[in-house]
Amino acid sequence: MPTPAAPPTPRAAAPPRPEELTAVPVRHYGRWLGAVAVSLAAAALLWSLLTNPNLDIRLVLSYLTRDFVLKGLGITIVLTVVAMVIGVLGGVLLAVMRMSPNPVLRTVAWFYLWFFRGTPLLVQIIFWGFLGALYPRLFLEIPFTGVVLFDEPTSRVVTPFVAAVLGLALNEVAYAAEIIRGGMLSVDRGQTEAAQALGMRRIRILRRIVLPQAMRVIVPPMGNDTINMLKMTALVSVIGGSDLLTAVQNVYAQNFQVIPLLAVAVFWYLVLTSLLSLGQHHLEKRFGRGFGETAASRDGALSRLISTKERL
Amino acid sequence: MTVTDSDRIVVAEGVRKRFGGLEVLQGIDLTVRAGEVCCVIGPSGSGKSTFLRCLNHLEKIDGGRLSVNGQLVGYRQVGNRLHELPEREIVAQRREIGMVFQRFNLFPHLTALENVLEGPLHVKGEPRGSAVAEAHRLLERVGLADKADTYPGQLSGGQQQRVAIARALAMRPTVMLFDEPTSALDPELVGEVLDVMKGLAREGMTMIVVTHEIGFAREVATRLVFMDGGAVVEEGDPAAVLDDPQHERTRAFLSKVL
Predict the structure, then answer these.
(1) Checking DSSP bridges between strand B37-41 and strand B223-228, what pairing results, if any?
(2) Which end of chain B is more exposed for a tag (fewer CB within 10 A), N or C?
(3) What is the mean pLDDT of chain A?
């Protein structure tokens, strides 16, 4: 027996026509509640910081653009840039060596990686800082002639700044090499074959065909590395590298305003890492050409978060 | 018609190639003369693609003699040894040989025009002005004049393969190698690529085409080669091989594909 249909009542409205129907997404009431709870917690934390006499916001603001802070900031930036430039250039070289058909180059690259990835960066930085204890003099002479081209005490050549650059850059070379090698491996083998068939030499294939395509894969982790590098420059404070952290440490060692001065450092580190993230976004767009949609060409996490449109 | 040495573009004599313990080419003998369109058919794993890749030294041969344009490919013979050439001389040989791949292998970060220009500009070092004009002419010839500034990712498979043909032609090769050029294409796109290849054949380009398109082979090829198990089983006039195969293996293969 079929279920008897409800008897048609003359008062009932006519069913809507299909084109009148509208789809309504799921309402996420939990998200709204969560947003309110998080906002309240954030406001409470902010309030406790702003009203905390040990932080002293006005003191922080007064330190923000003081000479010693800006000078330390400048050195932090220079260290980051120099270490990353050396790191990337050396990384390309090391990656190519590791993938070379030449077993000598492959072995040298393997040992470099083994050493510089196998010891902590902090140890390497301290080591470069105390290089003078291992080799008190650095000199260069033409063998068997006694002609000395160069002879200086190590401490004059390897200043804390040079030691900082050496420590950061030589370590970065090892990590950059692995990122770049991964990028090159991600490029289809057919690309190299097509370029070979055109009569291109290995080095030109690398420069014109493989590396530009590998960049798409290399840029995100390399951006990550650059942000990491900016923060790792703080490690050189152990050898008096005169970076941002060293600069504020020197001052709070005298006036004991530890927290306000650290807040100054935190502020500048955040400004710089935010700028770097922005730069990474543009690089990703640049190297995504010809590949359609990339992560960078989609909405960023922030705009997704505050987007009012519902995504199912 | 007299046959001179300079007529012979490709000469293979007893070419052997091993991958590990597997001998994929067991002594290939083949001669291709200028202006010939030589189609190579055979079951997969018969070594036909490998043989094609040996012709421009993408694969190294392990024995026998293989010459293109009168030069041993990738080697110099000293006594009865073959010494591998340095890269500089190998790339010079490859510039005379055009190759079209099954999966197109266009450079995805370059536009169609830049793909075609890559060889003339950056390998041959031709002046930009004339190279660009020639690249546009080649794109027009393959029917893609309006796609010059399009990236490969936005082109259909058939269009990509036609750009790839233009890219190979831009080097003005003496011989064109086609490695299953239509096997990765949707059926409705096969025709446009074959049409471009037929045009090339009519203009007298020397071509070696590894293919599964028996119809194309019958219509365009001046010679048909059937390979199986790393050896040339049968070769000759396409109609003769297709309609009256002499070998059992040829008959078995053709009965499956025709």
Answers:
(1) parallel
(2) N
(3) 86
* Alpha helix (H) residue ranges in B101-186: 112-122, 128-141, 157-169
Cβ(B69)–Cβ(B20) below 8 Å: no
A207 touches chain B (CB under 8 A): no
The per-residue pLDDT for A125 is: 93
Q: Does A187 touch chain B (CB under 8 A)?
A: no
Q: Which chain B residues touch A193 with a CB distance below 8 Å?
A: 58, 101, 105
Q: Which residues make Cβ contacts (< 8 Å) with residue A83, sequence separation at least 6?
A: A165, A168, A169, A172, A229, A233
Q: Which residues does residue A164 pair with via DSSP β-bridges, in sequence order?
A: none
B91–A200 CB contact, under 8 Å: yes
Interface test with B, best of A102, A188, A196, A198 (most B CBs within 10 A): A198
Task: Work out the number of other CB atoms within 10 angstroms of the CB of residue A123.
Answer: 10
* Chain segment B55-70, per-residue pLDDT in tens: 999 999 998 999 999 9
CB pairs under 8 A between A and B: 74
Contact across the interface for B109 and A197, Cβ inside 8 Å: no
Of A190, A199, A290, the CB nearest to B109: A290
The H or E element spanning position B94 is: helix B87-94
Contacts of A62 (CB under 8 A, 6+ apart): none
Kind plus residue range of the DSSP H or E element containing B71:
strand B71-72
Strand partners, B28: B15
For A121-154, the pLDDT digits (tens) are: 999 999 999 998 888 888 888 888 878 888 888 8
Name which of B92, B109, B171 is nearest A213 (Cβ-Cβ): B109
Dist CA B228 CA B235 (whole Å): 12
B134 contacts B171 by C-beta, under 8 angstroms: no
Mean pLDDT of A50-65: 87
CB A79 within 8 Å of CB A234: no
Q: Give the pLDDT confidence score for residue A11 in this predicted structure.
A: 58
Q: How far apart are CA A93 and CA B48, in angstroms?
A: 38
Q: What is the ipTM of this complex?
A: 0.92
Residues 6+ apart with CB under 8 A from B85: B74, B75, B76, B93
Do the beta carbons of residue B206 and residue B174 sit within 8 Å? yes
The percent of residues above 90 in pLDDT, for chain A, comes to 54
Cα separation, B185 vs B193, whole angstroms? 9
Tokens encoding A24: 């309504």
Q: Which amino acid is at A129?
A: G
Task: Report, as ranges of residue numbers, the positions in chain B whose pLDDT lies below 70.
Answer: 1-6
pTM above 0.95, yes or no: no
d(C-alpha B68, C-alpha A246), whole Å: 68
A199 touches chain B (CB under 8 A): yes
